[in-house]
Amino acid sequence: xxxxxxxxxxINADAADILAVIADFEHYPDWVGAAREVQxxxxxxxxRASEVRFVLDxxxxxxxxxxxxxxxxxxxxxxxxxxSSDLQADQRGRYLLSEQVPxxxxxxxxxxxxxxxxxxxxxxxxxxxxxxxxxxxxLKKRVEG
Length: 145
Description:
Elements: E1 5-11, H1 15-23, H2 28-31, E2 35-43, E3 49-58, E4 61-71, E5 77-85, E6 88-101, E7 104-115, H3 121-144
Antiparallel strand pairs: 1-7, 2-3, 3-4, 4-5, 5-6, 6-7
């Protein structure tokens, strides 16, 4: 990703347990504040989501969009790209998991979003930072319970 935001956090869990939470799209509305509805549209040969529809309501920002997912074969991450959206021209992202020691994993989140209506670069990066920070903190709370 050329111009993107990257954040990371350490979660007290094994990488496989974290990836299982990331892959459990149907339960996103339980722990992702802006996710109103999430539906898996297609799965890959391993039964993992390959295309997912999201209905997002983040106050002033409301969107319905579809993302295509690719899962790393070695279980260390997942990446996605935008298929369709009401408000976004492009979205690319990635979770990369790096187990530090058993029971402790560094999770890196990379995100690039372009809206149909362009934003000033600094404002766009600020929004991406807020999204990535919230996503990582919500993921940590969900995994660590």
